[in-house]
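Working notes for the structural subgroup meeting. M.R. asked for a predicted model of this chain before we commit to crystallization trials. I am recording the input and output together here so anyone reviewing the notebook later can reproduce the run.

Input as submitted:
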Amino acid sequence: MTQRHAGHTEKTRLKLSMSSASSVFKFSLETYSLTLSYLIQNGEVHDGSGAAPQRVDVRIADGVIREIGPNLKAEGEQLIEADGLIVAPGLIDLHTHVFTGMGLYSVDPVDAGLRTGVTSMLDTGTAGSLSYPNFERFIISEAEEDIFALLNISMLGALQGHPKFPPYMGDLNDGRHADVPSAVACVKRFPKRIVGMKVRLTSGLANYQEENEWAGFHGVFESSDQLGLPCMIHHAASKIPNTKVFQTLRAGDVYTHLYNPNSDHGFDQHGAPLEALQEARARGVLFDVGHGVGAFAWRVAEPACQKFGFWPDTISTDIHQYNLHGPVFDLPTTMSKFLYLGMPLEQVIRATTSVPAEAMRLQDRLGLLHADRQADIVLLKRERGEFPLTDVEGQVRIGHERLVPISVCKRGSWTQCGAQAIPKC
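Returned structure, recorded in token form:
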């Protein structure tokens, strides 16, 4: 287990136990200096593929999953009793803003990462070609989580553009910011962590000039074509027609903010997916939640999911300074909203593990709980009760279950998770 302190880390040994009388999980920490091996016993193991869970044990050594199977015998490992817990691959948040210290939006990776059960995250366009080198040098390299990035087609990145902080200027306030040569050069310089491109298509972020949005639109596809990488499209309150976006997206590209409340989302007045939206999915386009502070509305998500069965491929937070303390809070809270909508737990876990790993083309390393994989594992509790779940319009639904992160393993090092943010009624 790794405890964070100002400027340094301390390795500790995790002991996890549960009182059967009170159902309270208890942790004790002991400083250690040697690499430990662990045996997670008696958990409900979800491998991230969407398959039904199994009651099996998981053996970890040297930061790698060594063996998964029933009734494994201890071979001197530290035992972790997971009876009553979900054992799953470490969560992957496909939409975050964690370039902390730059611009209006970003949070510290600490606030979006291990303490919430997230072991890997994708920063979606906070940095552009002018700012990315410092993002990798000062944030990505220092984080305990694995952080990957989509490069903003805007050279400036998504550093500004909140209407409450004048002057209201966004990534594409000047169309010249969508500079393809500089974007391509940046990705080629930093190929290990940049896994694709990003554009924010909102009229207000382009100085309400349609040509500025088109510069970003054409630029993001041209650069990703040159690089052979996917792109993620933010499209809401845009002057570019939604059908044009859906028709241009290619297999492996990601359309985020799927259930946003703006009039140009991908559903008709009854909540049915538009034909262009369905055709895009059939081509292999991925659809992401990207909850954020303005992009998840119950009135859109409920009919889309419950009536027409248009579920997301990936569940993500779009976590930043303006939603960290509500309505997003963290990834498990966002996952709990889809449990409320009726998405099976196996699919909720798949949408936050193996599918985002595939979207980043990192499926050979992340997203599945299999032997010989990196030991990124989360222990979750499925808690019953009454929990208010709030959307971006302030509408509340009462969920009767929620996912609570208990502890997380990153490359074999354990961290106790923080308290879940959703209050009880």
